[in-house]
Design goal:
about 375 residues, about 15% strand, single chain
Length: about 375
């Protein structure tokens, strides 16, 4: 038996899994808290390579997808988490969460934040248990019986319908942010319009947006449903409760399902309002940096994350235009439905033509 020692790594990704296969390994040894990404886990399982936690004597091969409710997941112990407990799926708390998820699903559909079978909702009910929406069901039609439960590696441990393929995105957030209890992913049109143009909305325009969301990050495009897609949000989710997913939609996390949906509403309305304002042809007036600090203080009291709390990232007077890692810091211009500020290229052309005219007038040309 050939064992590859990866105990020095905190994360085992598909690249490591492939290298292990190429090296002819039959098992990989990982440290207690190592995170094995779902695609790496699947790849290792398909190639009969066991994942063994340093100190364990038993193999920790991944649990098969689609286990019945009575079968506990075996993936927890390999990753330093308790084995998933399928019984959590039928507790009074779970039943209340299921109803809340269905109500939020209907809100998303009614507000046109999802269409077809798009969007997905989840709630972390235990350390290694997440209740989630199924694949291929409209969020309007959801019933509590449609929901399923997965462990943090995406193995389904309860529920008759197959879990959403985008659950991996939610799971990466739960693993990265312990405060996150619920994630809502949807495709609201105005926020998604920003996401397909690679832009983030400007700040210091409307107080509610500053307090509940603030800086929005934008994660790079990857194919939905893949582990690579799920991991695109990792650099941002600790300091942002809302992320634009390039060419796709948005994801929000919060302490409850209802609150995560609130954030989607706040962002969508904000993006929509900015677009409407751009059509008025007058520049937007901004909230001052000083008043913006007051809003940030309120946010801190509410316990909401904001990258601007990290003063080491801030220069003086930068509440509004601090560059968010992953965002494309373009100056919004009036033609693209943002703030009414002229774009840099427009300014340059204007300055050049004025200079030319002046030079011509004084005969310097
Ligand atoms: Zn989606």
């Amino acid at each position: 038996m050939k064992s590859i020692d990866l105990t020095g790594q905190k994360v085992l990704v598909i690249r490591d899994a492939r290298s292990a296969l190429e090296a002819g390994a039959s098992q990989v040894l990982v440290c207690k808290n190592c995170v094995v990404t779902p695609s790496a886990r699947d790849f290792l399982a398909q190639n009969n390579i066991a994942v063994v936690t340093s100190g364990d004597v038993t193999s920790a091969a991944p649990a098969a997808y689609g286990q019945t409710a009575s079968a506990p997941s075996s993936s927890g112990s390999a990753l330093g988490r308790p084995a998933a407990n399928a019984r959590l799926f039928t507790t009074p708390e779970a039943e209340a969460v299921k109803k809340e998820i269905c109500a939020v699903g209907r809100k998303l559909w009614m507000r046109q934040f999802v269409d077809g079978n798009g969007g997905n909702i989840s709630y972390r009910i235990g350390p290694n248990e997440v209740i989630c929406t199924p694949t291929l069901v409209s969020k309007y039609d959801l019933t509590p019986e449609d929901l399923s439960m997965v462990d943090l590696e995406g193995n389904q441990i309860a529920g008759s319908k197959a879990r959403t393929s985008e659950i991996l995105l939610h799971l990466e957030i739960y693993k990265e942010v312990p405060e996150a209890k619920s994630c809502v992913h949807c495709h609201p049109p105005h926020a998604t319009a920003y996401a397909i143009t690679g832009r983030v909305p400007p700040n210091l325009v409307i107080p509610e947006f500053e307090v509940f969301i603030g800086k929005v990050a934008i994660s790079p495009y990857e194919t939905p449903g893949t582990a690579e897609f799920a991991q695109t949000v990792l650099p941002f989710v600790k300091t942002h409760n809302t992320v634009l997913l390039a060419n796709h939609g948005i994801i929000c996390w919060a302490d409850s399902v209802t609150h995560a949906e609130w954030f989607a509403e706040v962002l969508e309305t904000y993006c929509w309002t900015l677009m409407l304002a751009a059509q008025l042809g007058a520049p937007i007036s901004y909230i001052s940096e000083q008043k913006g600090s007051d809003l940030l203080a309120i946010k801190k009291k509410l316990g909401l994350p904001d990258i601007r709390f990290d003063t080491s990232r801030m220069k003086e007077c930068q509440l509004s235009d601090l560059e968010v890692p992953g965002s494309i810091a373009l100056t919004p211009n009036p033609c693209d439905g943002n703030t009414g500020r002229p774009a840099e290229t427009d300014l340059e052309t204007l300055v050049r033509s004025v200079t030319d005219a002046v030079m011509e007038t004084i005969g310097a040309k």
